[in-house]
Amino acid sequence: MILSNSKTSARWSDKVAASLAKQIINFQIRFSAWLKRWFNAYSIRQKKKIAIAIGLLTSIILISTSFCSFYTIPKLSQNYTSAHIGQASEFPGPQLIKRQLTDSLTKKK
């Protein structure tokens, strides 16, 4: 088998993808059949209770996760300089390491 041949490589990739897709679909079919047998084993009253419990649990999880933050916004450092909209009034000199973010309206004369 020559892997550098693009036709052969593409053929093997297609076979692997088809095999993987077939396994995923078979798993989904088996899982849904098991879930259907499990759910249909209960009476109508029990099914309503299960549906309500799942709905309540889902809503509790959604509401509780909306109040807690998984991503915290980092605090700005003390040496933060705000940027002004517009073209800079002058270019910084070569001795300045930090770029000045001023425009002609905010620069004092």
Tally of helical segments: 2
Structural class: mainly alpha
Low-confidence runs of at least 5 consecutive residues:
none
Shape: flat
C-alpha termini separation: 76 Å
Task: Please state the oligomeric state of the protein chains shown.
Answer: single chain
How many strands, which pairing sense, and closed or not: the largest β-sheet? none
Helical coverage, percent range = 40-55%
Question: What is the averaged pLDDT score?
Answer: 77
Strand content: under 5%
Number of strands: 0
Give the SSE string. HH
Q: What is the C-alpha radius of gyration, as a whole number of Å? A: 31 Å
Describe the structure.
The protein is an all-alpha fold. The protein has a domain at 9-67. It has helices spanning 6-40, 44-67. The radius of gyration is 31 Å and the shape is flat. The N and C termini lie far apart (76 Å).
Brief overview, please?
It contains 2 helices and no strands.
List keywords for this structure.
transmembrane helix, 109 residues, mainly alpha, transmembrane, 2 helices
What topology does this entry show?
Elements: H1 6-40, H2 44-67
